[in-house]
Specification:
Largest sheet: 5 strands, antiparallel
CATH class: Alpha Beta
Order of helices and strands: HEEHEEEHHH
Strand order of the largest sheet: 2-1-5-4-3
Number of strands: 5
Strand content: 15-25%
CATH architecture: 2-Layer Sandwich
Radius of gyration: 14 Å
Structural class: alpha+beta
Number of domains: 1
C-alpha cells in the first residue's frame, strides 16, 4: 500500500482504539523508515513539534526490538516505556515501522484500565492488514 492509504488505516485504527478504551490512548504516532543506523521520520502526528531532538532517546525502550529480526505485520509493546518514550511499534513494510505513543502515560498505566484488552484488538487488525498489504515507501 502507499503512504496515504497507510495513514488512513492508522487513523481508523486510532479511532477504534479510543472508542474501545473510552479515552484517547495514543496522542502521538509516526511512520519511520529504519535502514541500518539511519532513522527517517516519514510522517508524524502529535503534540511535539521538534521530534528529531528526542527521537533517539524516546526510541530506547523499543531500540533493542528494532534490531531484532522482524516480519511485516509483527507488533511489539514496550512495557517499560516511561514518559515520552515510544510504546508500541508495528512493522508495516520493509524497514518501515509505525510507532505509537502516549506522551502523558506509560503503557503500564494504560494497561491498568480494564478496557485496554479490547482496545488492543484494532492494533492486531492493523498489524494483520500490513502483513497482507505492506507499506511501500518507494
Amino acid at each position: 500500500m502507499k503512504l496515504a492509504e497507510a495513514r488512513k488505516w492508522i487513523q481508523l485504527c486510532l479511532i477504534d482504539i479510543d472508542a474501545a478504551y473510552g479515552d484517547t490512548v495514543f496522542d502521538e504516532w509516526m511512520i519511520v523508515h529504519a535502514a541500518g543506523l539511519s532513522r527517517e521520520i516519514v510522517y508524524y502526528a502529535g503534540p511535539r513539534y521538534d521530534t528529531t531532538s528526542s527521537f533517539q532517546q524516546d526510541l530506547q525502550p523499543l531500540k533493542r526490538r528494532l534490531q531484532d529480526r522482524y516480519h511485516v505485520g509483527d507488533l511489539e509493546f514496550a512495557q517499560d516505556a516511561e514518559g515520552t518514550a515510544f510504546d508500541i511499534l508495528i512493522m508495516a513494510g520493509d524497514n518501515v515501522f509505525v510507532i505509537f505513543n502516549n506522551t502523558r502515560l506509560s503503557l503500564m498505566a494504560i494497561a491498568k484500565c480494564t478496557t485496554w484488552a479490547d482496545a488492543q484488538l484494532p492494533l492486531v487488525k492493523l498489524a494483520e492488514h500490513f502483513h497482507g498489504d505492506p507499506l511501500l515507501l518507494r
